[in-house]
C-alpha cells in the first residue's frame, strides 16, 4: 500500500525562506506553494504545486488551504502590493493573519508553524515591526489550532534582506559611518538550520503551542558582523560610529547605498536598535545541537551572493489598484453588523446630508446631489457577526464596475477590542493624481472621523 505524503501549505513560498523551505520539505511532504504571481517556470518536482493566492482575500485563502494538513506561515507585509496602499504594515499583517486563522479553521488544519522575530527581553517601546510579529502570533493562537512560533534574529543566507543589507554595504563602501544601533547584539542563524528545525517541528506534538527562539553559534554586534564579512571577502573596511546618526538617516542612507526597497528596510532598521538574544531555545538546542558556525554560514552566503549576482529589485507597481486598511476602536458589546449599520447611518449626518446613503435590500448607494458615487452590494453568504462584506459594484467613482474582488469590509479583531475597516482591489475612475490628492485623502479623513465617533460612543458607555 502506497502511503500519501501529508500536504503542507507554505504562505510566502516565493520569498527568501520559502524557496529554501520548498526544496527541503518536499522530501517529506507534498507542497502547496502559495504566492501572488506564479513563477514563469513550473517545478520539476511532482510534489510541489505552485498556487496563485492573494491572502488578503479570505475566499482565496479558504480555497488555498483545502486538503492541506499543515501551514508554514512566512508572510510579513513589508512591501506595498497595490499602487496605493493606505495602511500601516501591521494592519496589513493583521488582516492576513486573521484570514489564515479563519481559513485554517474551516479546513481543519492540524498544525501551524509561524516564523517570526525574537522579542527583546525588555519589550517596552519595541518597534512596530516586532510588535506586529508578536501580534500575528496572538491572532494565530486565537484559532485554537496547535501553533509553533519560531523566532529568529538575523537569518544568514543568499537572498535574505538582513544579510544583503550588510553584504552590499561591505562591498560598496571602504569607510562606513555607522549609527549607534550597530553596537546592538544578535545571534545570526544559518538559513539551513532554520529550515531543518522547521522540518523537525511540522506535525511534532512536542512543540505544539510553544514559542522557540533559534540562534547561531555567536553573539555578535552588527559592527562586528560587518568586519567579519569584510574579512571573509578579503576587503579592508573602516567603521566610524556616529552617535547622532539616527534611525531616519540610517534608513535613507541604507536605501541609497544598497538599493533595497525602502519599505523593506524601514521596519528592519527599527528593530535593530535592540539586543536580540535567544532565550527560549531548549527545543532548538535539542533538535539542532550543532548549528552551522557563523564563519561557514557567511562564507556560503557570500559565495552564493557573488555567484548569483543578485541585483536590487526594481520597484514594481500593480495597475491603478487601491487597498486601504484602518484599525478602529470598537465599542463594548458591538459586532460587525452594528458597526456596518452605524457607518452607513453616520456618514450622511457628519456631512450634513450632502452625502446620502440609501439602503434597498442588500444594495447600499452613496450619493452626492443625487449622483451615485458608489454602489455596495452586501454579501450575505460571506458575512457573519464578526465580518460584514460588501462588494463594490458600481458608481461614478468606480472604473471597473464588474471586477469581482473589489470589496469593502468591517471585521472584528479576534484578540483585542478593535475592528478593521478595509477596501481591497478597488479601481478608482478619477485620474490617478486627482484620486491621490482628493478622494484618497477624503476617505482617510472620513475613517479618522468615524473612529473618533466610535471613541465618543465608547466613552459615553463608560
TrEMBL record:
<dbReference type="InterPro" id="IPR036291">
    <property type="entry name" value="NAD(P)-bd_dom_sf"/>
</dbReference>
<dbReference type="GO" id="GO:0005737">
    <property type="term" value="C:cytoplasm"/>
</dbReference>
<dbReference type="InterPro" id="IPR016040">
    <property type="entry name" value="NAD(P)-bd_dom"/>
</dbReference>
<dbReference type="InterPro" id="IPR051783">
    <property type="entry name" value="NAD(P)-dependent_oxidoreduct"/>
</dbReference>
<dbReference type="Pfam" id="PF13460">
    <property type="entry name" value="NAD_binding_10"/>
</dbReference>
<dbReference type="GO" id="GO:0004029">
    <property type="term" value="F:aldehyde dehydrogenase (NAD+) activity"/>
</dbReference>
<protein>
    <submittedName>
        <fullName>NAD(P)H-binding protein</fullName>
    </submittedName>
</protein>
<feature type="domain" description="NAD(P)-binding">
    <location>
        <begin position="12"/>
        <end position="118"/>
    </location>
</feature>
Amino acid at each position: 500500500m502506497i502511503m500519501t505524503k501529508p500536504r503542507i501549505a507554505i504562505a510566502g513560498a516565493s520569498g527568501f525562506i520559502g524557496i529554501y523551505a520548498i526544496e527541503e520539505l518536499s522530501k517529506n511532504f507534498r507542497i502547496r506553494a502559495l504566492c501572488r504571481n506564479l513563477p514563469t517556470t513550473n517545478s520539476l518536482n511532482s510534489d510541489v504545486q505552485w498556487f496563485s493566492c492573494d491572502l488578503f482575500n479570505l475566499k482565496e485563502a479558504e480555497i488555498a488551504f483545502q486538503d492541506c494538513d499543515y501551514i508554514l506561515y512566512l508572510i510579513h507585509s513589508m512591501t506595498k502590493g497595490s499602487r496605493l496602499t493606505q495602511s500601516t504594515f501591521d494592519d496589513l499583517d493583521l488582516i492576513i493573519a486573521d484570514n489564515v486563522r479563519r481559513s485554517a479553521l474551516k479546513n481543519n488544519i492540524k498544525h501551524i508553524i509561524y516564523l517570526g522575530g525574537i522579542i527583546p527581553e525588555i519589550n517596552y517601546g519595541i518597534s512596530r515591526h516586532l510588535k506586529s510579529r508578536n501580534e500575528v502570533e496572538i491572532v494565530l493562537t486565537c484559532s485554537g489550532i496547535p501553533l509553533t512560533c519560531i523566532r529568529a534574529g538575523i537569518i544568514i543566507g543568499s537572498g535574505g534582506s538582513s544579510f544583503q543589507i550588510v553584504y552590499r554595504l561591505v562591498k560598496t563602501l571602504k569607510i562606513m559611518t555607522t549609527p549607534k544601533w550597530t553596537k546592538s547584539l544578535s545571534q545570526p542563524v544559518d538559513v539551513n538550520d532554520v529550515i531543518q528545525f522547521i522540518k523537525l517541528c511540522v506535525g511534532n506534538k512536542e512543540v505544539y503551542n510553544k514559542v522557540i527562539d533559534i540562534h547561531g553559534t555567536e553573539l555578535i554586534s552588527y559592527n562586528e558582523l560587518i568586519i567579519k564579512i569584510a574579512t571573509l571577502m578579503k576587503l579592508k573596511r573602516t567603521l566610524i560610529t556616529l552617535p547622532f546618526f539616527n534611525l531616519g538617516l540610517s534608513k535613507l542612507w541604507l536605501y541609497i547605498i544598497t538599493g533595497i526597497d525602502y519599505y523593506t528596510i524601514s521596519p528592519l532598521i527599527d528593530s535593530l536598535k535592540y539586543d536580540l538574544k535567544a532565550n527560549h531555545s531548549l527545543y532548538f538546542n535539542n533538535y539542532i545541537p550543532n548549528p552551522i558556525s557563523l564563519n561557514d554560514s557567511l562564507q556560503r552566503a557570500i559565495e552564493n551572493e557573488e555567484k548569483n549576482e543578485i541585483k536590487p529589485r526594481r520597484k514594481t507597481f500593480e495597475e491603478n489598484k487601491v487597498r486601504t486598511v484602518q484599525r478602529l476602536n470598537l465599542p463594548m458589546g458591538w459586532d460587525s453588523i452594528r458597526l456596518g449599520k452605524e457607518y452607513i447611518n453616520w456618514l450622511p449626518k457628519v456631512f450634513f446630508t450632502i452625502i446620502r446613503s440609501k439602503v434597498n435590500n442588500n444594495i447600499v448607494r452613496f450619493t452626492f446631489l443625487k449622483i451615485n458615487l458608489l454602489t455596495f452590494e452586501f454579501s450575505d453568504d460571506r458575512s457573519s457577526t464578526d465580518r460584514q462584506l460588501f462588494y463594490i459594484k458600481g458608481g461614478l467613482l468606480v472604473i471597473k464596475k464588474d471586477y469581482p474582488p473589489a470589496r469593502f469590509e468591517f471585521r472584528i479583531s479576534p484578540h483585542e477590542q478593535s475592528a478593521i475597516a478595509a477596501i481591497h482591489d478597488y479601481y478608482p475612475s478619477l485620474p490617478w493624481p486627482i484620486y491621490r490628492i482628493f478622494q484618497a485623502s477624503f476617505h482617510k479623513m472620513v475613517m479618522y472621523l468615524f473612529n473618533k465617533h466610535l471613541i465618543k460612543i465608547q466613552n459615553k458607555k463608560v
